[in-house]
Write a structure and sequence with these properties.
The complex is a heterodimer. By secondary structure, chain A is mostly helical. Chain A has two helices and no strands. The chains are: A mainly alpha, B alpha/beta.
């Protein structure tokens, strides 16, 4: 679920940039991608059966 | 007689053991096992019996050790050194089981040390070469296993065959994700960023819905790869409109500067040295996706720069700036009766260079040279100096 939300968030970011609402640059993209990947990995690790 | 492990060392005790008086049809004594010794065997030896001895000791086919030695001989010559050292260190099959003592032992140690002193350059070169092959291979295997672990939940436990299978499947997934990323980047750079964004959102929604219906973990990596590629293209401001190749524009009058100079991939040169430029402000707009943009101006023209480069560098006479999100704003005033070129430049990935001649811009010999100008070659925005 977290992975899905993170991917949707990335897609919305791209859509906002394509529409001109947001000016995406590496200073924004870097932290956002790190946060998204971190959330996905964290959720994946926590949900894995021990 | 064939031993249970199919090896001659297990047969010897049966021949040596005293079986007199024992009825072979009823009972058979299990002979006491001799401790395994690493020796250079006579049977099946090709040279010194090292490979055959290792094969017997590890219960493997000696051909494995022979192939390994030959490979190491070809890769820097380490195999030859290792073979000679093993020949010196491993006793012959007929030799007594005790380790070499006294003068013989010191002779062997001295021989090995001498061998290492003579051969260390070969060992080092071979080692580096082997490391250059083995380390990338190991990184690939680990990456493949981790990817497969993430996608399927199957951890790295298991025998070598299973680990190899998982690594191969993981690398296959990585390869497919790479193709998806390239396709997504191309589509976004060609103007389809909205479509890519919608695909990413739909994929995310499917993953989200899958959490409640049926998990689709395999979709996460491709969706993230697509989003990353499109995001990188957007952040770099990459635009592939304008075609591919080299373009060299030499406008004759300022009226020809009204249009935007645009190129997708390649080298874009706008040479204004022979252009009839009026006094006052003259706008110039250049757009490049990937490559190098050169703007050449006469020495009496002042250049005001407003440039963005996603990944790369900007060089304006004696100033340079490089890296990610390079943004250069330089608006000097021009003296009266001079031309001021208002340059609006955008480069996705590559370099923007502004100067008075190609020779001035060619000093580095390569793009993406983020270093300062070499001593003695300091250009100035001389048109801005009264």
């Amino acid at each position: 679920m977290v992975a899905g939300a993170a991917v949707v968030a990335l897609g919305v970011l791209l859509l906002l940039d394509a529409g001109g609402t947001l000016d995406l640059h590496f200073g924004v993209l870097g932290p956002v991608v790190c946060a998204a990947l971190g959330a996905i990995l964290l959720a994946s690790g926590l949900s894995r059966p021990r | 007689m064939t031993s249970p492990r199919g090896h001659s060392q297990w047969e010897k005790p049966l021949h040596r053991g005293n079986l007199s008086g024992v009825n072979e049809t009823t009972t058979q004594q299990i002979p006491p096992q001799e401790p395994r010794r690493l020796v250079r065997v006579k049977e099946g030896r090709v040279l010194g019996g090292v490979a055959a001895g290792l094969g017997r000791y590890f219960n493997l086919d000696p051909i494995i050790f022979r192939i390994g030695a030959i490979v190491l001989v070809l890769v820097g010559g380490a195999g030859l050194i290792a073979y000679l050292a093993a020949w010196l260190l491993i006793p012959d099959e007929d030799a007594p089981g005790e380790p070499a003592a006294g003068r013989n032992r010191w002779l062997v140690i001295a021989g090995v040390v001498l061998l290492l002193c003579v051969s260390w350059p070969f060992l080092l070169g071979g080692g580096l070469l082997v490391a250059g092959l083995v380390i990338p291979l190991a990184v690939l295997v680990v990456a493949g296993v981790l990817v497969w672990w993430f996608v399927s939940g199957e951890g790295p436990a298991g025998n070598a065959g299973e680990v190899a299978r998982r690594a191969a499947l993981g690398l296959l997934i990585l390869f497919v994700c790479g193709l998806i990323a390239i396709g997504g980047a191309w589509a976004a750079a060609a103007g389809g960023e909205t479509v890519v964004a919608i695909i990413v959102i739909v994929a995310g929604a499917a993953i989200l819905a899958g959490a409640f219906i049926r998990p689709v973990r395999w979709l996460i990596l491709p969706a993230v790869a697509l989003a990353l590629a499109a995001g990188t293209v957007s952040a770099a401001g990459l635009d592939l409109h304008g075609g591919v190749g080299d373009r060299d524009y030499r406008p004759a009058t300022a009226a020809e500067l009204d249009d935007e100079f645009q190129l997708g991939v390649g080298q874009l040169v706008v040479d204004l040295r022979q252009t009839d430029l009026p006094r006052g402000d003259v706008p110039l707009k250049v757009r490049l996706g990937i490559g190098e943009t050169r703007v050449l101006v006469p020495r009496n023209v002042c250049v005001a720069t407003d440039a963005q480069v996603g990944i790369g560098e900007v060089r304006t006479f004696d100033r340079h700036s490089g890296g990610l999100d390079v943004d250069v704003q330089d608006r000097p005033d021009a003296p009266p009766a001079r031309t001021r070129l208002l340059l609006d430049a955008n480069v996705g990935i590559g370099a923007l260079r502004i100067g008075h001649s190609n020779a001035d811009l060619d000093y580095a010999g390569a793009n993406f040279d983020f270093g300062p100008h070499p001593p003695g070659l300091v250009e100035q925005n001389s048109g801005c100096v009264a």
